[in-house]
Amino acid sequence: MAAKATAAEIQAALKGLPGWEYEDDGLVKSFEFKDFKQAWAFMVKVAEAADAMDHHPEWTNVYNKVLVRLSTHDASGVTGRDFELARKVEAAL
Q: How many domains does the chain have?
């Protein structure tokens, strides 16, 4: 099991993840795209990265908007795996 990140670790990591916020024991960011097709293409890229890590996001999609929430359930909060996936989410843009 991955260790839950401390408040200091979370704040330090967020400095390198523009637009991401820490709320309710998770990392959260909203993305907006030109249209549904671009939003879906982004989700496919993220899904492939997440599946390769065996670490899957909570997310919602409405037309051109995608809300991503990352948390490690077995740690009941944010871990290094969430920071890693957040960086991969950013790389999918």
A: 1
* 33: CATH: 3.30.1360.20
Strand partners, 57: none
Indicate the SS3 state at residue 66: strand
Residue 49 to residue 91: CA distance in whole angstroms? 10
Q: Per-residue confidence of the chain (93 residues) as pLDDT tens digits? A: 689 999 999 999 999 999 999 999 999 999 999 999 999 999 999 999 999 999 999 999 999 999 999 999 989 899 999 999 999 999 999
Tell me the pTM.
Answer: 0.93
